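@channel sequence for tomorrow's demo:
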Amino acid sequence: MDTKTPILVVDDYRTMVRIIRNLLAQLGFDDVDDAGDGSEALERMSSKRYGLVISDWNMEPMNGLDFLKAVRSGSTANTHVPFIMVTAESKQSSVQAAKEAGVTNYIVKPFSADTLRSKLGSVLG
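structure tokens (generated this afternoon):
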């Protein structure tokens, strides 16, 4: 896993942003930005290329699924960036909607550091 990969964490819950940032730091990642919702994340992505996006699903005004769809539609230079959705939504219909929108991987809350490490490994190699 290349720990120099720039990562964007998108979540409107600041505590979750802090938790994910801390877990990423423990794994050696230090180029980590964050955004409070999909709209803010799209702004960040318009000026920087990311190697990974980790996004919450339930946010306002732009939720994670709409954000993912916007990224995949080519509205930024990061169209093919690996995208991990983090959510409490474990319904099969939600997982399917995320897959159809182009999600790379999916983490259901609550999750452990080992789960995040495993998902990062499968996405970043």
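heads up for whoever presents: The CA atoms of residues 105 and 111 lie 14 Å apart.
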